[in-house]
């Protein structure tokens, strides 16, 4: 039986030849791959561009509000139909799409340095060192935050604005940090606000499950949106505007010579409202009177308005004698008489609605028309009533506040922080919609809204800027539309004309009627313009029952 020869051990020359052949094979494969890439480069570029265009279209569709998706689909279908009917339309469309895909799919030259530069690294390191005392523990065997450590593992994402300051930052923190305690959160937020740059509004999103804190710099809200007619349904009132990420609805507005879509804060009133009354608080000059004027101009489109001004500055004189304005009272006697009539009118509406329901009939027409009671600075009237031994006008608001939703009566109260203790208990309990305007302290905002704000307030805020919370909902940033007093000398011509254009026609000139002497010891009843004598007379339960019988 023959034996197979053993394989011969490769010599030094044979090994060198084998390595050379392997290197040549790799070079040939690399050359073939480069050649194929060069040949298929246009196809690869176009494919990459189509993928990017499809991703951009998908993001645009997701960001589009649901109420605007139908018109968008109709517009796209119309464009497709027009392109299909135009000669050479499909061919030109394909060429345009391929060109756009080639442009979007081009190789974008990466920056020289993917990480932050020296100055940005110094800012991040300073933030890291400032957070070490709060995010470190002596018993931690592997601390994420330590003196002399690096920020690379603590800050997972970061962005800078054009000025070199932090614009977006994602911070990791240890699991033992008490992120559920408001005091601990407020301490970290105050520190980051001071270190990242003052004079800006920051939004803090705490992820308690993932132990991450996302810090975002918010863009300033537009403070120069003029007063105008908003596209709303009956029972909806626009308090102001907020961030696009907070609400799903937008309103088309006239912004100078342009038309823009701004996300609004819509307050719904009426029978089905869960927040039928509103309380606005602020410092002098914060814009509470501007908010009341804006609400009055919107309310006059569908209802009647009764204004009681405790400030006595005459900022609502432009509404005197207008259609739908029942009265504009600035004195204590007139305020008592007007609010007493409002309480009796609320009772009359309740009785009329109850009788109509018992008879199986719809409510009367006069009970379905909304009645708005706007009370500015009631603390002044409370002080005057106490000095003169009279009744506090806020006592007369108990019936409209408690039963106003069923009677289609809405109460709006504006007061300053200095006189906040003068507000009655009924006003505090029944005003579930809350607004805070001006540069208020976080403690003051939490006292009014019930929860602390989710952003850091500015030290100097423009008039009409603040926070709003409807019931138990979230806290939103708010910017009230610019609605100044048109009779003020400091008002510009554009703002004056914008407000005057929204005012109803004047039914009775302010100085047309002869003054009637009034007995100041007895409260007088305010007259309602363009109404019958029966409707002007306050009705009691016995009177309504006798009239129905």
From TrEMBL:
PROSITE patterns the UniProt entry points to: FTSK
Residues covered by the FtsK domain: 262-446
SUPFAM superfamilies on file: P-loop containing nucleoside triphosphate hydrolases
Membrane-traversing stretches: 72-103
Region (Disordered): 504-549
Family annotation (Gene3D superfamilies): P-loop containing nucleotide triphosphate hydrolases (3.40.50.300)
Binding residue positions for ATP: 282-289
Presence of keyword Cell membrane: no
Keywords of the record: ATP-binding, Membrane, Nucleotide-binding, Transmembrane, Transmembrane helix
GO MF term set: ATP binding; DNA binding
InterPro entries, per the entry: FtsK_dom (IPR002543), P-loop_NTPase (IPR027417)
Protein name from the UniProt record: FtsK domain-containing protein
Organism, scientific name: Streptomyces dangxiongensis
């Amino acid at each position: 039986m023959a034996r197979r020869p053993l394989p011969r051990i490769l010599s030094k020359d044979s090994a060198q030849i084998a390595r050379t052949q392997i290197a040549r094979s790799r070079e040939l494969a690399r050359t073939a791959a480069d050649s194929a890439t060069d040949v298929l480069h246009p196809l690869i570029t176009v494919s990459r561009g189509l993928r990017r265009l499809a991703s951009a279209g998908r993001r645009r569709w997701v960001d589009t509000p649901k109420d605007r998706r139908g018109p968008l689909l109709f517009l796209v279908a119309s464009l497709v139909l027009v392109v299909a009917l135009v000669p050479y339309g499909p061919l030109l469309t394909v060429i345009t799409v391929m060109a756009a895909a080639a442009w979007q799919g081009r190789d974008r030259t990466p920056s020289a340095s993917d990480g932050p530069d020296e100055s940005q690294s110094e800012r991040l390191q300073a933030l890291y060192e400032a957070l070490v005392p709060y995010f470190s523990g002596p018993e931690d065997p592997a601390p994420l935050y330590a003196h002399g450590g690096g920020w690379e593992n603590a800050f997972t994402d970061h962005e800078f604005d054009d000025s070199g300051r932090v614009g977006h930052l994602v911070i990791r923190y240890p699991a033992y940090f008490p992120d559920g305690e408001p005091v601990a959160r407020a301490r970290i937020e105050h520190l980051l606000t001071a270190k990242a740059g003052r004079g800006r509004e920051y939004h803090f999103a705490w992820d308690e499950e993932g132990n991450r804190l996302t810090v975002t710099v918010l863009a300033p809200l537009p403070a120069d949106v003029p007063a105008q007619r908003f596209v709303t349904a009956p029972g909806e009132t626009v308090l102001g505007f907020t961030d696009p990420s907070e609400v799903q609805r937008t309103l088309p507005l006239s912004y100078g010579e342009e038309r823009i879509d701004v996300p609004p804060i819509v307050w719904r009133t009426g029978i089905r409202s869960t927040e039928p009354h509103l309380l606005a608080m602020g410092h002098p000059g914060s814009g509470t009177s501007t908010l009341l004027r804006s609400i009055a101009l919107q309310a006059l489109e569908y209802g009647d308005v009764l204004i009681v001004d405790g400030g006595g500055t005459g900022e609502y004189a432009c509404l005197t004698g207008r259609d739908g304005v029942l009265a504009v009272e600035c004195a204590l006697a007139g305020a008592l008489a007007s609010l007493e009539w409002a309480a009796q009118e609320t009772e009359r509406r309740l009785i009329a609605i109850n009788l109509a329901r018992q008879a199986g009939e719809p409510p009367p027409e006069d009970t379905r028309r909304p009645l708005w009671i706007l009370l500015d600075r009631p603390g002044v009237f409370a002080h005057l009533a106490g000095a003169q031994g009279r009744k506090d006008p806020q006592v007369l608001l108990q019936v409209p506040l408690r039963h106003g939703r069923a009677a289609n009566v809405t109460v709006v109260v504006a007061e300053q922080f200095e006189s906040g203790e003068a507000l009655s208990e009924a006003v505090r309990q029944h005003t579930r919609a809350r607004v805070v305007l001006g540069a208020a302290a976080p403690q003051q905002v939490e006292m009014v809204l019930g929860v602390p704000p989710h952003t850091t307030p500015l030290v100097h805020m423009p008039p009409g800027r603040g926070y709003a919370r409807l019931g138990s909902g979230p806290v939103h940033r708010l910017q009230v539309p610019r609605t100044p007093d048109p009779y003020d000398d400091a008002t510009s011509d554009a703002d004056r004309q914008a407000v005057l254009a929204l005012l109803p026609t004047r039914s009775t000139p302010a100085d047309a009627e002869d003054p009637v002497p009034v007995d100041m010891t007895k409260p007088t009843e305010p007259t309602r313009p363009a109404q019958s004598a029966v409707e002007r007379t306050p009705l009691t339960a016995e009177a309504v029952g006798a009239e129905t019988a």
